[in-house]
Amino acid sequence: MSMINIYQIINSLAFTNKEKTTLRSYFYKNSNEIDKVLSIIDTCQMPEEKLDFIKETFLKSDGKLCVVVIGQQKRDALTGFFLYDLGQKLKVAEAFPTGLPYKKPIPLLSSTGSQWDYQLDEELREMMQGTIKKHYQKFKENVRDKTEIPFYLFVSGPGTGKSRNATELHQTALKIISDPELKSRLEKAWVFHVSLENGHSLRPVEKDSYVAIATRMLFQLLEERLDTVITRYELTSPWDVLNLVAIYENKELESATFILVIDGMQNMIESIDDGLYKESNFFKTLITIGELSMENIFCITCCTMTTTGPIEFFLAESSRYRVFLPVSPLKPPTIASNPVFEIDNSIIRLLVGDCGGHGRVLEVLQQTLTNNNIKNSNFMENFHNQLKYRYKRAFSYDANDAKEIVRAVLTHTTLSNYRPITNRTKLTPDEITRTGMFHFEKMGNSDEGYLVMPYMWLWVMAEQFLDEKAPDLQYWRFDDYQEHLSKEDKFLASGYCTWQNFEIFNANFRCLKSRMIDEGEIVSISDIHRGAKLNCDIKYKNHHLHLDISSRQIDTRTTQTNSKRWHIECEHNTIDIRECTHCIINKTSAPHGDALIGLDLPDSKNEVQQYKLLNDHSTFNYTIERNKAASKKDFFILLTTKDLDIKLPQNSGIVNKQNWNQYFGAFSGRAFIFAVEGPPDINNAVRAQLQLVSQVGKKRAEEIMAKSPFKNIQDAKQKTNIPEKILKR
């Protein structure tokens, strides 16, 4: 009956006729093996599993039998390898008595970004250079103390470039080491790349994680599938594999140099607390990997791990000398020194800037641009959907911590790297930045600085953590790449972010920052305009601001007449500026300030903003402009792209070329584009650029592109039926 069953199974599976004949013949001659085979096949759920089991156990790639003798081990006449009884693994020392030749590893990633030129960060260079030199010196001194011998780690958020940096570890070491003796060792090093991702994850049958690493090292040397290596060979540690190479090369193992890179160590975690529990299999494996460097062989061990929160939250402290190697943001990538992206295109330049140097996001952007024509498809929507799918869960913060992080970023609060960012959270900048999703810009050589956050992550966190009914970011349109709000001709939605021009951008940015501070909280001008050059210390009660536009030109200076009540007729409503709840944009070409905010103080004062596009040849008198826009007691701030060296009068401020990035942070790219480039050319702009204009959505952008070129605004109005006011933008 067993014979019939095995034949039926062979007939039912997708073997070739030749393979079926070979297997039938084998089981006819070795019927005593059938019950053992059937007992294993019964545990297979799918036909594909049965097929793979029989092929990997009995057949070579050419369809011939790889097991021809049952009962006692004999050598294969062609390969010299030992053959094994079913269920009995071969000890590698017996399977390969003459050893195995070393084979160079393949890269740990094969995504789009693997083709980009590698960018060696200066901080990584300096850290590796100093640490490896000291490591080798300790090795020569026969020091094997775990507090002295380094264990290298790339720990960062998903897609930040850990695998690429780990792949380049050996080449990086060769570039940065100048000592002839150490360099010679590194040139001859046996480098092993062990991946626990991309099809090489731990199999259910692998109960020992340390042995699983050794198995993948052996896999690098053999031209066999990983599952075959797992099934056939018995190993006890990585030393089994290193001994095979040493035997083949006829050298003492102690004279070799060994570099082991393990990618994706987090995939060994079975329980969320494994990294904090020192008795867990994961933690013990991590310790054992580090101990490889304690033997009498110069060994560099490096692991990569993905985290979505501070390292302390998932990895317990240890007296082991751990070196956390930095994973720095990328500059715009190149291939053979040629730019990957068309940075001359303002929309693409904006998108690249929004990625914040995040490797995986830049890959998604490249793929989206490749698959979508920027001129006739909404590639931004596709880009957004891809990011949302990949990174919605990339941040392990609760809503309160997320809000405090966003607040610190947008207000550019000066922080200590090792102290909580506010008294409402325990998170420090040092903990936050270890995920690789944020950066901490230090002020000089001190521990003080401010958090920097790419626009893309600000967008993801806002969508994920902030209540849409809360007065924080509910009005801010982060997906400004997509179709914008379409309102009535003279209606401006209160607080909504549109990119009509630099004035509206800055007014919205000011409203947004007001919403990051609690309603009624006492703040200073330096709190709200962090990053600007200031000569002002006014403190006032904060209110969450709404945006509107004046229906006529107004004088923006505080006077005795308007100090108690000041009603301004706006496009949306009539506003009393002394209620301090609105930021009002002045009507175009007004000879006074461009935007006005009432500050909640016993003695009424205004905040007046002025926006100037100045080039190197422009003449400008700060004092004259201030006197036209603000009274002496008002706070006046100028925003310009020109580099101006001005001694500021009292109650004054300036944002210019020198402090642009410090002031705008994640929004600096947008601010610069709208300040310098102004409105898009209606006859030459692509759809995405047109959609950056207020009240121009997908349909209107397509209408403009279909019926352009236009001789003038009247011609455009006649052909498209779009209101003249919108076309002028």
Instruction: State the shape.
Output: elongated
N-to-C span: 85 Å
Q: Give the helix/strand class.
A: alpha/beta
Query: Helix segment count?
Result: 28
Q: If you average the pLDDT, what whole number results? A: 81
Gyration radius from CA atoms, angstroms = 33 Å
At the fold tier of CATH, the topology name of the largest domain is: Rossmann fold
Q: Just name the CATH architecture of the largest domain.
A: 3-Layer(aba) Sandwich
Largest sheet: 7 strands, mixed
Helix content: 25-40%
Instruction: Count all strands and give the number.
Output: 23
- Low-pLDDT stretches are 67-86, 480-500
| Strand order across the largest sheet | 14-23-22-21-20-19-16
Strand portion, in percent? Answer: 5-15%
The CATH class name of the largest domain reads Alpha Beta
How many domain modules? 5
Summary keywords:
5-stranded parallel β-sheet; 28 helices; 5 domains; 729 residues; Rossmann fold; alpha/beta; 7-stranded mixed β-sheet
What does this structure look like?
This protein is 36% helix and 13% strand. With 729 residues, the chain is an alpha/beta fold. It starts with a helix and ends with a helix. About 6% of the residues have low confidence. This is 2325_t:CDS:1.
Helices and strands in order:
Blueprint: H1 2-12, H2 17-29, H3 34-41, H4 47-58, E1 90-91, H5 92-95, H6 122-140, E2 151-156, H7 162-167, H8 169-176, H9 180-187, E3 190-195, H10 209-221, H11 226-232, E4 233-234, H12 238-249, E5 257-263, H13 281-291, E6 298-306, E7 322-324, E8 334-335, E9 338-339, H14 346-354, H15 359-371, H16 379-391, H17 399-410, E10 415-416, H18 429-433, E11 439-442, E12 448-452, H19 455-465, H20 502-515, E13 522-524, H21 525-528, E14 533-535, E15 539-541, E16 546-549, E17 567-569, E18 574-576, E19 582-585, E20 595-599, E21 605-612, H22 622-629, E22 635-640, E23 652-655, H23 660-664, H24 668-677, H25 687-690, H26 698-707, H27 713-720, H28 724-727
Parallel strand pairs: 1-4, 2-6, 2-7, 3-5, 5-6, 16-19, 21-22, 22-23
Antiparallel strand pairs: 8-9, 10-12, 11-12, 13-15, 14-23, 17-18, 19-20, 20-21
Helix pairs in contact: 1-2, 1-3, 10-12, 15-16, 17-19
